[in-house]
């Protein structure tokens, strides 16, 4: 990861975690072919059973924003979006320091 890369953090709540996890896997496969995609770390909360977080790394902020528009039309992403009850945080971050 270089300083120019963008990290996209999405934290959400799902009602049916097994269904959301399966839908997320399909979404991950689809988005892995988007321009500027680097990686996606999918994690689940240890304290809140229905809380998931996705940390997606992009080459640029433009690539991240373009992907954000594209997922709204991507049929492979629709089941994951439908599985999300609430979005707690959806934000882009630039790496300032790393050790």
From TrEMBL:
Q: Which InterPro entries match?
A: Dimeric_a/b-barrel (IPR011008)
> What SUPFAM superfamilies would the database entry show?
Dimeric alpha+beta barrel
Q: Which domain of life is it from?
A: Bacteria
Q: What is this protein called?
A: Antibiotic biosynthesis monooxygenase
Source organism of the structure: Ensifer adhaerens
